[in-house]
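Thanks for the sequence, V.! I ran FAD-dependent oxidoreductase domain-containing protein 1 right away. Repeating your input here for the record:
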Amino acid sequence: MQGRIFSRRGYAIGSTAALSITAYLLSDLPKKDFASMSMHEVLLTNSSEVQDVLIVGGGIIGCSLAAHLVCNPRSSSPQTPPSTLGKNKKNIKVTLLEKQTLASESTGLSAGTIWSLGAPKWSNAPPSDPNLARIEFSHLTNQIYESLPDTGFSKCGCLKLAMSLEESAFAYDEYKELAPLIEDPSNLLFLSRKGVKEKLSEVDEREVYGGLYAKEGSQVDALRAAFALAERAEEAGANIVENIEVKKIERDEEKRVYKVSTACGKTWLSKKVVVASGAWVNEVLDPALHLPIIPIKGQMAICNGEPTPPSLQSLPVIYFFSSYMWWSSNKTSRAAKIKITDNENINHCYGKRGSDGRYYFGGDRLIPSHSRDYEVDEVNLRRTMNEKAFKSIPAIRDIFEGEQVGSWAGIMPFTEDGSPIMDKLDGEGLFVATGFGPEGITIGPGAMKFFGRWVADGGDMPPILQTFGMKGRFEKKNGENRG
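Predicted structure:
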């Protein structure tokens, strides 16, 4: 078995999920020798010194948290923390353990689209308002990505399309709800059918009834973003170790630390532990702490983009209201909704042009046949594209049916109510950050600003995180509330 210390000297290529597509995504990174170490060297490098915080999971959430913990000075006075990551080291010992290679699961297989509305207007809602929180998280996430080198970040705008009168009415209701919560109202526009056509001339006006346009919407190369955050964390003193599988987390009350046991036989000791291992968070938690996380498979394809109409060469990120409206309106449990696979509206759909000039299309919300089901259902992927993207923007069909670089699937952690879980699981120092579904790239780095400060400083949960805690959200099978 080989263990590896992550280093900015090079990147590891490879993933159980999608080795070939990961290799493609990394193909234009500078060719560097990765710092591979024997397990003996890993064990020597990571001594029995007690850590202040140990993070389980090296996706966008874990990498963001590590960077925030070691990079920025802690201060509880401002309502909003600094928006960018400094390089100053703090006196805090942080170790991140990743089972495979960094960002090798849903993060590395993400399209990297960010629905952002700019800065929130704090005076118009309490800090605990979930819409206000998401606006703040995505705004900070944009600023963080923009401040990091080589992430493929660009503010291209996001366009969410309504393909029926009902969806257009829903879009208008969302506009009325969100517009008062943003500092600059011009960042969010409700568009008529004509307004959509003006934003994107390739739209078929017979199929589109309106939509919303987010001027601050953006995109990023998710894999590069995770690496950049990990590099920043490592530069500031975090210890990031790949190919180490955590098997068990126990509390040693006598020593007042957590014992984190791994498959290689090494045990780490830490004052606090944050589990951020995505869809597999329950694999390392005590069964008594079982979280209502549902693994859901999303699918995506990369296309070379020939032929490309001029109007699509600067394509904004495209979303569709149908699935968003249905999931938001259905009052049954999230698990029940996901299982209704014959309803086309379950399948999310999106498209974007990446910083590499290629086009990324996908969506879908499928129940994986097993915990590592990465097989692409090409029929379902094409059906989703045909029912939404091809109808509304016919030129996308030509791009999709042209030369494809590849297609792949990733497993995302969903919750029953569609919101992430960020909470403390005991009275000491065991935390969890999971259930972000497709929002990890969109709000994760911003959310980890607040979450990381809470983990480091202790005290009460910040108001902005309270809506994402466990209390009062989920029901046990016997009808008793988990919180």
